[in-house]
Specification:
Elements: H1 6-31, H2 51-63, E1 66-71, E2 76-81, E3 84-94, E4 103-106, E5 109-112, E6 116-117, E7 124-125, E8 136-143, E9 146-151, E10 162-164, E11 168-170, H3 172-179, E12 187-191
Parallel strand pairs: 1-12, 3-10, 9-11
Antiparallel strand pairs: 1-2, 2-3, 3-11, 4-12, 5-8, 6-7, 8-9
Length: 192
């Protein structure tokens, strides 16, 4: 009988080793569904830390070709993914003296059920039907002490108007759909 080459033996060893690691991981997950045992001693380096970059890679690849465009004159927002429009919706924009800034930005802050502070009095309004931000906040600019972003609204009848303090307002169904397709760092382009 002919002896396998050194390269082939190494390949077989690697395959069996990988299969053993997978079986051990499956066994550990079965007996410890939370990923660790409370009686186990502290381990400064665990393999679980290595999975973080692997989990982030697909998200990054999915959103790498995603961008938001706001068209102020048309009072419209578009979400592009791979150069195709996947969401298009009407918006309200900044009123005279509080114009929505034009330029290229990126999503800096994302919140569900945000707290709104009046831009002049700084009085807070918590989540709920009286909150002018609606159920979602997507911040893309801090200018002075003012935060500018895309959000829902509690006055959906004003969509299509220039009524905000610089933010971009959307219908609740639209902001929730947009929120589910983006992440921090997604480009935001505001055009005249």
């Amino acid at each position: 009988m002919e002896k396998p080459s050194a390269v082939r033996r190494c390949g077989i060893l690697i395959c069996y080793g990988a299969a053993g690691l997978l079986a051990a991981g499956a066994w550990r997950d079965y007996y410890y569904p939370n990923g660790w045992h409370p009686d186990a001693p502290f381990q400064p380096m665990r393999l679980a830390r290595l999975t973080l970059p692997l989990r982030q890679a697909p998200e990054s690849l999915l959103t790498a070709n995603t961008r938001i465009e706001v068209h102020l004159q048309a009072r419209e927002i578009r979400l592009y993914q791979n150069e195709q429009v996947i969401l298009q919706a009407p918006v309200a924009v900044g009123q005279d003296g509080w114009q929505t800034p034009i330029g290229e930005f990126a999503v800096r802050d994302m919140r569900i059920n945000p707290v709104w502070r009046h831009p002049i009095t700084q009085e807070p309004v918590g989540p709920g039907p009286s909150n002018p931000l609606g159920s979602r906040w997507i911040g893309f600019l801090v200018e002075g002490g003012y935060h500018i972003g895309i959000h829902g609204t509690n006055q959906e009848n004003l969509i299509g108007e220039a009524v905000s303090h610089g933010c971009v307002r959307m219908l609740e169904k639209d902001i929730q759909a947009l929120y589910g397709h983006i992440q921090l760092g997604t480009p935001v382009v505001v055009k005249p």
